Amino acid sequence: MSAATIVTLPDQATARIPKMNFLTKENGLLSWLLTGDHKRIATLYLISITFFFFIGGALAGLIRLELLTPQNDLVAADTYNKLFSMHGLIMVFFFLVPSVPATIGNFLMPMMVGAKDLALPKINLLSWYLYVIGGLMMLWTMCVGGVDTGWTFTTPLSTHYLNTHVVSAAMSVFVAGFSSILTGLNFIVTIHKMRCPGMTWFRLPLFVWSNYAASILMVLGTPVLAITLTLVALERIFHIGVFDPAFGGDPLLFQHLFWFYSHPAVYIMILPGFGVISEVISTFSRKRVFGYTAVAFSSVAIAVFGFFVWAHHMFIMGISNYSALVFSLLTMLVAVPSAIKIYNWAFTLYKGSITFETPMLYAIGFMGLFTIGGLTGVFLGATGTDIHLTETYFVVAHFHFVMVGGMLMSFLAGIHFWWPKWTGRMYPEKISQLAALTTFIGFNLTFFPQFILGTLGMPRRYAAYPPEFQVLNVFSTAGATVLGIGYLLPILYLTWSLKYGAIAGDNPWHATGLEWQTQSPPLTENFPEIPIMDHEAYDYEWLERMERKEVASV
Amino acid sequence: MSHISPVLWQFLVKWLTNFSLFPPEASKVAPQMDALYFFMVLISLVGLTVVILLIVSFSVLYNKKRHPVAVQIEGSTLLEATWTIIPLGLFLITFVWGALLYFRIYTPPANAMNIYVVGKQWMWKIEHPGGQHEIDALHVPIGRPVQLTIISQDVFHSFSIPAFRVKREAIPGRYTSVWFEATVPGTYHLFCTQYCGTNHSQMIGEVVAMKPDDFRQWLQGSTSGNSLAQDGERLFASLSCNACHNPRPDSRGPNLVGIYGSHLTLASGETVTVDDAFLRQAILNPSEHVTPGYAPIMPTYQGQISEEGVFALVEYLKHLDSDYRIQQTLNTTVLPADNEGSPAPGAKGSKAPGEVKQ
To answer: Residues 19 to 58 of A: which have CB under 8 A from any B CB?
Structure first.
């Protein structure tokens, strides 16, 4: 291999996947469905969220097709409303929220802290079952006619005016919410109680820190969502009059309750992604993350401030001018930790020894797109410009830059990065680099025009729009096609690599994390014996010494 | 260019000639908002450029071929403080600037002319004080502040005029308001931007900004015969409001003359300013807004008056400045002799209110 790579694979002629590993330990469907192994549950999660991602993606494709022309011609207005509602619900609650924590996080958390499993393995399995039950309820909702409330369930539209399947959709999210609470709870207990000897808080990988912060948000925020959705269902069935002004209720109360969860939810979705980026950037620049403590605490700061900014979704909704002022200020403050992270990552590259394998390409793509996503958030956090930009495509573009450009990029970075650990085989490098590039180009072509559309005033959730907006919409739809290819490629070559990928060996990237110091795929118990952490996180000099010792002893 | 399809070619030419990055600036606040917008675009470009430059230059300088051994660096408090304080400072500037703009847009000047807006699935109903009714269209004069008082009669809607850079949610059960001063005559988009059900994307209309003379002409040509306050006066009589709310010494309800804008202490001890929102609440939910000295006998009018009706009553009370006018409504109403009875239907105010705004 040339110098521009850090990959060292074992001799493919003699290399074998370890006979004993978590995948081969037991066979049969039941051994998967009743497993307590966090790695197997993570695999179940990976399969199920991929399934929902492609359903959500197909819905997005239909939305973009409808918006190719200004007229409402491909589908009826009601159908269009269902498409974007189901797209939002599935992508937010069945893909983004569980994406990194429940798959990569589930797979890695015990290994990273040096434990055999999560603290509560059965609860972990229960959380997957809740996810599946919620998911099936959502699919059922979709099959019997769908729901057209938007993913926000805005009252009184959702409680009194729509005759679609609002209650079953709300209950599906309610159930899935408990899956997320249980995952969060499990992570918190594990991080507090299961760290191996020597693993102090400041030796934890940053992935653990960011998932810890996200877990706190899941545990404290999701119950509020559960209560809110229950109230929506009760209001709809029994007209209890909490949100309906005709019965003395307050429709703004719903907005407060909903955004009290749903703004922190944004950080539930993005924080674990930050963790992936820290790991990837450090590994591929062979350097400790620049300002470890600042990055760790900025995650916690985001989690704390994240709870006090919800009303920035309501600046134009008749909240008092002064409360808008307070929430705008807090929003500006929560933007700062994100800025710190970006610059810390950029400076991690400084004086590193950088290589550009696929995970790194996704991570660099993440940094660019998340910077745009974060900065456009400031446009919306400033009360004055929010008046013009909110409820337009500017918002759509902003959160897709954060959620898709940020979270999905980091999810793919993580999947590629830990794929060799997970399966014991490498993904094909060249085609996956192509996929990363395709995704980046397709993404920008899809969502950048939407910033301009929003500034021009095009409202979101419109099935038909004034003809002068067409060209930018055509660009956006064209980009979505490219983006679709970018997402289809990984599923093809990753599946291919399960059988034909090169044998990866324990640590193909020469990464420092504890998960890399065990075999790939790991044993069910993760480590032959509980490791002892005697060095800092991202200590590449320690790794070098270890590797030299190994060579010497052989 | 023979290999490019003519349709595509036309399409691109058309777009390039009409390309714009922001909507027309047709109100006084629009250039101010665009200034802040472009300031933020500038910050974003600088921030993004710095990030890209760092990534690209480090990637070139420190890639493995050129720099095979990494130098371990813990961090740098100075550098980290720099990229904490500079973004924080910039964000605080945008915060203050944005807040100033926000207060400007949501604090109407005292001399603004008032227009009432009712949103419903899926149309906008506009009520001018002069009695002009519009649907999905709003005519306004240029060079004069216009305040919109907005309410929805069903679900959330949002009243958005991109060319004026203003937007306000229409909420069921409560008034919101926004104001603007149009500067350039023309026809602009009016959108509902809050998702409101099936025909959300059809809940659009146009805003026509007109020169003052044209606007006056339009008002005259579109009048429905009665001003909004006159409609309110008719309602006031036909709902028998005047049976209790009159200047007689033994009246059962407080006299409403000159009440608008005054400060009241309610029976609950709460002090309120009588504005549109208070009047609406007092009409629809009277038992919670009792004036001391009067028995809480007023029934609720929830569900009996349309939102336009409430607007008419509010507009009437706003301009109610003498007992004489209530007396006039009493003269045209057959008052029940101290007990309940139905008022004469169709009772009509004979006297036009004095100073209906144009």
So the answer is: none
B182 in the same domain as B118: yes
Asked whether residue B27 falls in the same domain as residue B89, the answer is yes
Q: How far apart are the C-alpha atoms of A24 and A252, rounded to whole Å?
A: 54
Average pLDDT over residues A355-382: 95
Which residues span the domain enclosing B251?
A: 228-332
Distance, CA of A509 to CA of A505 (rounded, Å): 10
In this complex, the residue of B47, B84, B193 whose CB is nearest that of residue A375 is B47
Q: Which position has the token pair 């908002």?
A: B33
Beta strand B146-152 with B113-120 is parallel
Chain A residues inside the 8 Å CB shell of B99: 324-325, 328, 382-384
Task: Record the pTM.
Answer: 0.92
| A119 token code pair | 């603290």
Radius of gyration of chain A (CA): 23
**Does ipTM top 0.90?**
yes
φ and ψ at B192, to 5 degrees? Answer: -90, 120
- B83, B124, B284, best to mutate vs chain A, most A CBs in 10 Å: B83
In order of their start, the domains of chain A are 29-553 (1.20.210.10)
Point out the residue among B21, B63, B71 whose CB comes nearest to the CB of A354: B63
Which residues, 6+ apart, have CB-to-CB distance to A250 below 8 Å? A242, A243, B173
Q: Does A450 touch chain B (CB under 8 A)?
A: no
Assess if residue B345 is contained within a domain: no
Whether the predicted pLDDT of A326 surpasses 80: yes
CA distance A450 to A393: 5
CB-based contact, A466 to chain B, within 8 Å = yes
Residue B190: inside a domain, yes or no?
Answer: yes
Residue A457 at interface with chain B, using a CB cutoff of 8 Å: yes
Give how many domains chain B has, as a whole number.
3
Q: Which residues of B touch A2 (CB under 8 A)?
A: 65
B163 within domain boundaries: yes
- Averaged pLDDT for residues B310-332: 81
Tokens of A90: 């599935």
Q: Domain with B137 in it: what CATH number?
A: 2.60.40.420
Segment B74-126, tens digit of pLDDT: 888 899 999 999 999 999 999 999 999 999 999 999 899 999 999 999 999 99
Q: Do B24 and B46 sit in the same domain of this protein?
A: yes
The radius of gyration of chain B from alpha carbons, rounded to an integer in Å, stands at 28
Q: What distances in angstroms separate CA B88 from CA A311, A401, A530, B82, B126, one per listed residue?
A: 20, 22, 44, 10, 43
- pLDDT at A383 > cutoff 60: yes
B178 in the same domain as B197: yes
Which two three-digit tokens encode residue B50? 């710095």
Q: Is A220 helix (H, G, I), strand (E, B) or coil?
A: helix
Answer yes or no: is B160 within a domain. Answer: yes
Same domain for B121 and B212: yes
Among B222, B239, B264, the domain boundary falls at B222
Q: Are B25 and B93 within one domain? A: yes
Cβ distance of A344 and B154 shorter than 8 Å: no
Tens of pLDDT, residues B274-296: 989 899 988 988 888 888 888 88
